[in-house]
Amino acid sequence: MTGAPKRRIRVVDKQLKESSQTNEQGIRVLSERWEQTLPIEQAIEGHAEALSQVWVGVRRWVAVILMAHKPREADLEDLLQIVALQVCRKVHEVRDPALFKPWLRTVTINIAREQGRKATRKRAGMLRLVGRGKNESDSIGSMQLSEDARRVLDAALSLPEKYREPVLMRCQQSMSYKQIAEVLSLPETTVETRIARGRRMLRETLDLQSKQLEAQQKQDTRAVRVGGA
Amino acid sequence: MDTNNDNTNNPSSEWKSENSAHLRDLLISRVIDGSASAEDWSSFRILASTDAEVWNDLSDAQREHEALCEVMHAASSIADGVDLPGGSGSPIVFESRVNAAARWGGWAVAAVLMLGWFTGTFSMNQTNNPLGTNPQTGSMVPLNAADPEQAFNQYLQAGQADGKVVGEMPDHVVVETRPLVDGTVEVIYLRQVIERRVLNQAFREAVDEFGNPVVVPVDLKTLKRGSAF
Fold first, then answer.
1. Facing residues of B189 across strands?
2. Do A23 and B62 meet the contact criterion of CB atoms below 8 Å apart?
3. CA atoms of B229 and B222, how far apart (whole Å)
4. Which CATH fold topology does A146-220 show?
5. In the β-sheet with A127-128, what is the strand arrangement from edge to edge?
6. Which chain A residues are within 8 Å of B205, Cβ to Cβ?
7. Which of helix, strand or coil describes residue A132?
8. Is the complex ipTM more than 0.90?
9. Where in chain A is the domain with CATH 1.10.1740.10?
10. A-chain residues within 8 Å CB-CB of B212?
């Protein structure tokens, strides 16, 4: 290797290191706050105010779990509201505060699947006006996604379930490996392994898609040329 | 649980093992997450010196992570807008409101109570409309100056004149009744409006063999009276 590329690598290396340290510190601070501010025990005992606080602390990762498990056409906001209701109605059934997060994850997954199926059946039987069809992967709520984000999301949603969930959770700002491990009831090392593998699988999926697209484009170009001749 | 968890703690010592591909994934993942230690960085440099492709993989993985973060950011902003139903108050009221909201939200509609309703505006006796609506006639109030009742009546009137509104159902669906401290009763109810549209083209939603939602044109000639799509 020549001197110039080595220097470039060192510069990139240093920048990555610095940005990593900043991110890491930020995540640690946020994680600690997150842990301290959730009055789960009081929420289970029936304090509405505490329950509201807990919900505010967990609703983002609930959204991620819904994203990982819901059918594409199911509406994220609708499902979040159903989870919120279920939390209110059933939280008192949680016997140990330490089990709250795994319990909530199970509730969320069940709702994503069950309500998603219902929504699919219902929508399949409904009349749709021209142009009213909605694809969740084009937008999330009112936010339009970039082309890159749409493509990567589609690929991420095609990952096997055990990789999909932690990979998406890690993209949720402020969720550390430890917090993901708590929600998934897995050791931190397993979470880390799944995230790393999931990312590699995602990379391979997208790489394969790009190659297929490229091959298709070449074939189309050749067909046009033959047609033109 | 994954089988390779034991290899995650000291990547530099494992380079020559058969799990080097797995450790490569871990290092890339740690760099992206900002959790790479000095030892990880050292290992990463060693790896990069023998396999320059790792930089491309890191770059791709970083880009994909950012794209997913964009999606999760959108999901988070939806989650931030979903609060627990009912708000604060006594646990009893809180719980009853939750149950009521669950019912009218369409999630357990079978439990709702239908009550006949009589007001000057919606009397069956005062109208020839088969659905019992009788939007108030008389001078139209400018919409920005109208109260909710007037605005709603204007919508019914304009809709009926236009043919888009058939009428309003005479019965209101009671969601919740709650005695107030001043001796009055608060009633939360649902009003149902029947609308119509004339279509020259219609579609129904279906799912293709890959599970993706697709719209399928409906042959309007084959539709029987009263059939659903």
1. B174
2. no
3. 11
4. Arc Repressor Mutant, subunit A (1.10.10)
5. A127-128, B202-207, B213-218
6. 73, 123-124, 126, 128, 133
7. coil
8. no
9. 34-124+134-139
10. 72
